[in-house]
Amino acid sequence: MDPSYVSPVNEGVAPAAPGEFAPLAIGPLQLASPVVLAPMAGITNAPFRQLCRGFGGALFVSEMITARALVERNAKTLRLAGFDPSEQPRSLQLYGVDAHYTGEAVAWLVDEDQVDHIDLNFGCPVRKVTRRGGGAAIPLKPRLLAKIVRAAVARAGDVPVTIKFRIGIDDGLETFRDAGRIAEEEGCAAVALHARTAAQLYDGEADWRAVGELVQHVTRIPVLGNGDIWEAWDALRMMRQTGCRGVVVGRGCLGRPWLFRDLADVFAGRRPSNPPRFGQVAEIMLDHARRLVAWIGERHGMRDFRKHATWYTKGFPGSARWREHLIRIDTYQDLEKILADTNPELPFPPHAMRVPRGKSGGRQRVALPEGYLTTLEDDTPPEEELAQATAVSGG
For the chain, where do the domains classified as CATH 3.20.20.70 start and end? Predict the structure, then answer.
C-alpha cells in the first residue's frame, strides 16, 4: 500500500509474521482469518454478507434476530434469519431478554439446521431497550445474564454460542468482567467486547485497554476486540496491544467491503493493495444494489441501498453533489445514471480511510427501569413489552 494511505497512527506497523497469531477457532469452526463481521441492524443482511465474503475470509454474522419473534415465526424475522446456500459457515446473532424464548429460538435454529454459530447480543445501548432492562442493561444482573446464556448453550448442542457486550453502562457501572466470567463458566465458545460503554454509544475512541484486561480475566476461551478497526493495520495493533485472539469489524467496512481483502492480506504477511479508484467503487456499488434488488425487489432494495450509497461515496471530491441525488434513488437505473456521470479515475481520498460511517457522535445518559439498580441480584426477565420488541442495534 502506498505510504499516503497509511494513517499516522499506523505508521511502522508491519504485516503479521509467520506464526505470529494462532488460528482462531470458535468451537468447531476454524476461521480463515481472525476476523468477524459485526452484526449491524439493517446492514448485515444476506446481500451485504455475500458481498463482503467475496473480498476475504471471516465469520460473517447476520443482523440481530429477536428470539421471541423467531419463536413465533414472524415472517419478516424468518426472512432476515435466512442464509444464501453459498454462505458457510452460517452465523446468526440472536437478541433475547429471557431464558425461555432464547432457549426455544436456539433449539429451533439448531434442530432445523439453520445455523453453524449463534451469537447473543448484550450490548444494545438504545434507549427504548435499556429503559426496560434489555440490551446493555442485562449484564448489570449477573444471574439473569447467566440464566439466558445457560439456556442458549444447553439447547445449542454442538453449535457454538458466543456473546457480545460492552464495557458497561458508563464509567461508574462496568459489567464486562462479570459478562466474560459468566460466558466462560456457562460454556460459551468465545466472547467479543465492544470497547465502549453504552453511554458512549459510538462516540470517542474505543478503550482497547479494556480488551486487554478482559484477555487477562477470561483465559479459557478466545476474547475478540471490537471498536475502531478502520484499517487492516488497526486489527494488528489491537491484537498486539491487547493479546485478543481476533477482531470484530463494524462501521469500518461500511462503504468499504474491500477492508476484508486488506485484513486477509495483513494476516497473511502482505501489505494491502491501495483502495480502489472510483470506477471500481462504482462497480462494487452496482453489484451490491443488484444483490439487494434480487433479495427484496427493486423498490425496497434501492431504498435500502440509499444509505450504503452515501457511505461508498464519502470523501470523494464532488461527492456531496452526487449524494443529493443518491439519497433519492428509486430504481437501479437511477443509480446507473448517476454513476455514469462520475469520474472513474478519481483515487480514493487518503483522509477518508478513517472517516466514521454509520452511527456516530454524541453520548447519552443511559435510561434504566426505575429501581433497577436496587435489584441487581434478581433474575426476572424484563417486561413482556420488551420481549416482543424488535432489537434495533448491534451494540
Answer: 23-273+381-387
Q: Could you report the per-residue pLDDT of 51-80, keeping only the tens digit for each?
A: 999 999 899 999 999 999 999 999 999 999
Q: Which residue has the cell 488460528?
A: 23
Name the active-site residue from 124, 188, 244, 253: 124
Instruction: Write out the three cell numbers for 246.
Output: 481476533
pLDDT tens, 10-33?
999 999 999 999 999 999 999 989
Q: Residue 387: what pLDDT?
A: 39
Checking DSSP bridges between strand 168-170 and strand 173-174, what pairing results, if any?
antiparallel
- Bridge partners for 64 per DSSP: 93
Q: Are strands 223-226 and 246-249 parallel, antiparallel or unpaired?
A: parallel
Assigned fold of 278-346: 1.10.1200
351 in Cβ contact with 61 (< 8 Å): no
How many other CB atoms are found less than 10 A from the CB of residue 328?
11
Q: How does DSSP assign 167-231, residue by residue?
A: SEEETTEE-HHHHHHHHHHTT-SEEEEESS-TTTTT-S---HHHHHHHHHH--SS-EEEES---S
| DSSP state string for 120-167 | EEE----HHHHTTT-GGGGGGSHHHHHHHHHHHHHHHTTS-EEEEEES
Q: Which fold has domain 23-273+381-387?
A: TIM Barrel (3.20.20)
Angle between helix 298-313 and helix 319-326 axes, rounded to 10 deg: 170
Q: Are 267 and 294 in contact (CB under 8 A)?
A: no
Range list for CATH 1.10.1200 in the chain: 278-346
Q: Would you call 65 exposed, middle or buried from its count of C-beta atoms within 10 A (0-12, 13-18, 19+)? A: buried
Residue 351 carries which DSSP code? G
Please, what is the Cα angle at 176 between 69 and 33, to 5 degrees? 75
124: annotated active-site residue: yes
Q: What are the residue ranges in the chain where pLDDT is below 50? A: 384-393
CB 253 within 8 A of CB 260: yes
pLDDT at residue 357, as a whole number: 87
**Cis amide leading into 160 (omega within 30):** no
Q: Which residue has the cell 484477555?
A: 215
Q: Which of 214, 144, 213, 227 is nearest to 184 (CA)?
A: 214
Q: Which residue in 175, 174, 116, 117 sits closest to 145, CA to CA?
A: 175
Please tell me what DSSP assigns to residue 393: -
